[in-house]
């Protein structure tokens, strides 16, 4: 099958509620699409995400039950669960630092100030921000930034709840990358937010700090798997050129 263009993939992607059991999908292709998901933009390049590719029948059944056996889950041939891992920020910071150091080491001429700025971001600024994941510390930081913002332009998303939103935004971008990549292959998906998060974390053996972003069912649509024509609010109601 010829891979679809970006415009074709966007047009093809619909939330599919019923999949055809007679049309299998290739796990290797799905895995490549997950690799594309990992190339999505992410806040500070921290990549605070994980992807769980569900292929076994037992695991699919368990995940479907955690998704209330809705048709999109029950008929899925495979599933991908995207997970937010804000708790991994120290490891991701360390990985970025090592990458930056290795990049500078390859260059014959290095501006010390440029290197210092790059490393300072991950060695000081990001740790200071992500320690705000503690609710009390986050509240104090939020209060400080609010007062600071009275006199100057200020970054304000520093509380624990703010960082949670940031983590989910980045992981949602990765999820969209995955679904667009699947659509380009002629495969269908459905992002689901209806699930028992506690039960699902137990199935995936996730730590308490991990958070489920969404469950994405995968397969090839049946004709009745698309519930009606696509509806969108008129573009002129949501588009503003300034």
Number of strands: 4
Helix/strand/pairing class, anyone?
Answer: alpha+beta
Report the uncertain regions: none
- Strand order in the sheet with the most strands: 1-2-4-3
End-to-end distance = 42 Å
Q: Please write the CATH class name of the largest domain.
A: Alpha Beta
Q: Over all CA atoms, what is the radius of gyration? A: 21 Å
Helical amount among residues, as a percent range? Answer: 40-55%
Average the pLDDT over all residues and give the rounded result: 93
The geometry reads as globular
Secondary-structure arrangement, i.e. CATH architecture of the largest domain: 3-Layer(aba) Sandwich
How many domains comprise the coordinates?
Answer: 2
Describe the fold and architecture.
- By secondary structure, this protein is α+β, with helices and mostly antiparallel strands.
- 48% of the residues lie in helices and 11% in strands.
- It is built from nine helices and four strands; from the N terminus they run H-H-E-H-H-E-H-H-H-H-E-H-E.
- A four-stranded antiparallel β-sheet has the order 1-2-4-3, sandwiched between helices.
List keywords for this structure.
NADH Oxidase; single chain; alpha+beta; 242 residues; 48% helix; 4 strands; 4-stranded antiparallel sheet; 2 domains
What is the compact description of this entry?
The protein is of the alpha+beta class and 242 residues long. Helices cover 48% and strands 11% of the residues.
């Amino acid at each position: 099958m010829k891979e679809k263009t970006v415009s074709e993939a966007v047009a093809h992607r619909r939330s599919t509620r019923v999949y055809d059991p007679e049309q299998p999908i290739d796990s290797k292709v799905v895995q490549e699409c997950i690799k594309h998901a990992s190339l999505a933009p992410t806040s500070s390049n921290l990549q605070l995400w994980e992807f769980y590719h569900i292929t076994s029948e037992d695991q699919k059944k368990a995940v479907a039950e955690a998704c209330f056996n809705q048709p999109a889950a029950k008929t899925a041939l495979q599933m991908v669960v995207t997970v937010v891992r804000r708790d991994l920020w120290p490891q991701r910071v360390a990985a970025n630092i090592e990458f930056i150091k290795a990049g500078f080491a390859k260059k014959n001429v290095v501006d010390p100030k440029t290197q210092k700025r790059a490393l300072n971001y991950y060695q000081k600024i990001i740790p200071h921000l992500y320690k705000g994941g503690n609710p009390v510390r986050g509240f104090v930081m939020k209060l400080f930034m609010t007062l600071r913002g009275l006199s100057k332009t200020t970054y304000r998303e520093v509380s624990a709840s703010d960082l949670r939103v940031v983590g989910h935004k980045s992981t949602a971008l990765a999820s969209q990358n995955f679904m667009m990549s699947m659509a380009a292959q002629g495969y269908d998906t459905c992002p689901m937010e209806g699930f028992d998060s506690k039960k699902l974390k137990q199935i995936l053996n996730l730590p308490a700090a991990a958070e489920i972003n969404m469950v994405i069912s995968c397969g090839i649509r049946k004709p009745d798997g698309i519930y009606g024509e696509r509806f969108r609010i008129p573009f002129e109601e949501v588009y503003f050129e300034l």
